[in-house]
What we know:
The chain is of the alpha+beta class. The chain contains 13 helices and seven strands. It has helices at 12-23, 56-71, 86-101, 142-149, 158-163, 170-196, 202-220, 227-236, 240-249, 255-267, 274-286, 290-303, 308-318; strands at 2-3, 30-37, 40-48, 77-83, 106-114, 117-120, 134-135. The two termini are 28 Å apart.
Amino acid sequence: MTSDRTLVIHSPAELIAVVPFVLGYHPHDSVAMVGLTGARVEFAVCHDLPPPDWTEPDAAEAAGVVADAVARQETELVVVVGYGPRRRVTPAVLRSAQAVRTRGVEVLDLLRVDGGRWWSYTCADRGCCPPQGTPCLPGDSVIATEATFRGKVALPNRKALTAQVAAVEGAERAEMARATERARRRFTDLLAEDLTAERYGQLVRRSGQLAVRAAERCYRSGGTLSPDETAWLGVLLVARSVEDFALDRAESGHEWQVRLWTDVLRRVEPAYVAPPACLLSFTAWRAGRGSLARVAVDRALAEEPQHPLAGLMHSVLGHGLPPHMLQLRGRGR
C-alpha cells in the first residue's frame, strides 16, 4: 500500500501517468487500485495478475484480500487499472472491482493499459474512448514532471525497486566485511565493560543512542556514514533497546531517513540486515512509500524470519493499514 496526498489528477490519462510515481515503479501484468478523495490521489495498491492455472475461487479470494486492504483506507472512490493484454486483464479488473464494491467502496472507473495506450471499460463514447485505445501521456507530461519535481521516482519495474535494497557488492562489500569485524570486536569489549560495571546493557544502549543520533545528523545534512560508522551502527542495532530507540525516531518518515536506512541496510553484513531493513520499511511506510516498505521487510524476513519487528511490519503492510493507525511513542527518546 502506497499513500500520496500531494498529486491531483484531472483525467484518466493523468491518473494513469501518476500511478507509476505513486507505486515507485511501472506496473506490468498486474492490477492497481488507486484511491481518490475528489481529484486527489490518496493511495495505490498493486498486485500481480492471477496465474493462468488459477481457479476462479482462488482468484476471487486473492482479490478479496486486496479489497479488504483497500476498504481499510476508508477512501471515497477507487479506480481499478489493469496492465496487460485484454484476455488476462479484463476478468482480473472486473473481479477486483466487484470485490471492493461488495465492501462498500465506490468504483469510479475501470481502465486497462497496454502497449502505450489505455481503454476504459465504463465509457462507451467512441469520441472519448476509441476502440483502438487512447495514447498514454508522454513521460515528460505536466503531471509526470510535477511528480518528479516532488521527488517521486518511477522505476522500470518491481525488480528495479527490489534492487534498491540489495546488498552492495565488490570492493564496497569487502570493505564492509573488514569494518564489521572491527565493530564486532568493539561491541564485545563494550559488552564486557557493561557486565563488569554491572550496568546490564546501559553502555550498549547509550552507545546505540549516540550512534543513531550521529547518523541522523549526518544524513539530515546530506552526508553519508563511513564503513566503520555504518558497521558500528549495524552491530549496535542488534540490541533491542537501540532498535526501539531508532524506531521511535523514525516516525516522521523524512526522505533523509529513508536514505539513511537504505544505505545501512545495503551495506551491513547479512547477520545485521533485519533491524535496518525493518527501520527502512517503517520509515518508508510512514513516508507513503508502501512498495519500498514491502521490499524492505521482505529482505528482513529473508535473513531473519522470526524477527519481531519484521513480523509486525509484514502484518501492517499485508493488512494495508494506513500510517495514522499505528503510533509508536515514548520508546527511547
